[in-house]
Automatic annotation (TrEMBL):
Signal peptide, first to last residue: none
Protein name (database record): Helix-turn-helix protein
Highest taxon of the lineage: Bacteria
Boundaries of every HTH araC/xylS-type domain copy: 194-295
Origin species: Microbacterium saperdae
Family annotation (SMART domains): HTH_ARAC
Gene Ontology terms, MF aspect: DNA-binding transcription factor activity; sequence-specific DNA binding
């Protein structure tokens, strides 16, 4: 089964909570893939934007990338203020962004991802909008991925749509985590575990993921991370197994993955064998892969 290809201009931007004034965008493109919404707006005439996605997408957090020759912003009733750099990043849990103006050749990229999943992976995401003028490698990598997803007219398969949705959500959470981790007020051990959980969530499909690799990604010694998990009564290996088990549970109960064998599900979830998957499901859910799939797909 295929998912719809991107919408083409003209798009009713108001349906996504975007209001444009002073001019009309030259191009706009949108794609809804699974739980995420991607939107790109471009133009070459001065324009003013007000963005509030809370009504259109009430359950989504917003990552906003602005590229413009010159940008002004305002927070009512303050006057317009010039932003010294032309490229900026805005992160907000609840979709409301202070008005801004663009001039020259400009581009605005919106990424909307499920708030609950983003906050789970980046628990220090503050409720107020955050704006950054320093652009990092991770920010630009996310932009390039989303641009690629929006560039094609091709429809996506269910598996492609699921993968894009997962990746965009995890990348948004990684950007938030990258921007908030150093300012966290949470205890150090808790912050390290939060960062490790985000790494594990993103990489648990890799059967070669080990506690040592997780610690390397977080940027701390393996022993330090082991102690941090021990303080909460867990371990890195247990968290890797828990994430893989939860992923396998999701795949086994999803109609889109019914054609896959139990062995293929195990492989997709990062387990080295169907037996490893069976043991993990029995430990966490007290069931077997076949029983879980049968119950999930029984007529209701």
């Amino acid at each position: 089964m295929k998912q719809p290809a991107p919408e083409h201009h003209p798009i009713d931007l108001a349906l996504h909570g975007v209001q444009a004034r002073r001019s009309t965008p030259r191009r706009a493109r949108a794609r809804k893939t699974g739980d995420v919404v991607l939107l790109r707006i471009e133009g070459d005439s001065p324009i003013e934007f007000s963005i509030d996605t809370a009504t259109a997408h009430p359950d989504h957090a917003l990552l906003l990338c602005i590229s413009s020759r010159a940008t002004q912003k305002r927070a009512w009733p303050e006057p317009w203020r010039e932003v010294e750099v032309a490229s900026s990043l805005v992160l907000t849990q609840f979709g409301k962004v202070p008005s801004f103006r663009c001039s020259g050749n400009w581009r605005v990229l919106l990424l909307l991802a499920p708030r609950d999943r983003v906050v789970t992976m980046a628990p220090d995401f503050p409720p107020h909008p955050m704006r950054f003028t320093e652009r990092r490698v991770l920010d630009r990598s996310v932009e390039q991925f989303v641009e690629g997803a929006l560039a094609t007219d091709a429809e996506t398969s269910n598996i492609e749509g699921y993968a894009i949705s997962q990746l965009v959500t995890e990348m948004c959470a990684a950007v938030v985590l990258d921007r908030t981790a150093l300012n966290s007020t949470h205890p150090l051990a808790e912050r390290l575990c939060d960062r490790a959980d985000a790494v594990i969530s993103q990489q648990c499909r890799d059967p070669n993921l080990t506690p040592a690799l997780v610690a390397e990604e977080v940027g701390v010694a393996l022993r330090t991370l082991q102690i941090s998990y021990a303080e909460s009564g867990s371990s890195i290996a247990r968290e890797i197994r828990r994430h893989r088990t939860r992923l396998a549970h999701s795949l086994l109960t999803d109609d889109r993955y019914r054609p896959l064998t139990i062995g293929e599900i195990a492989e997709h979830a990062g387990f080295r064998s169907p037996m490893s998957l069976r043991r993990a499901l029995d430990e966490v859910y007290r069931t077997t892969p076949k029983a879980l799939r049968r119950i999930a797909h029984e007529p209701r």
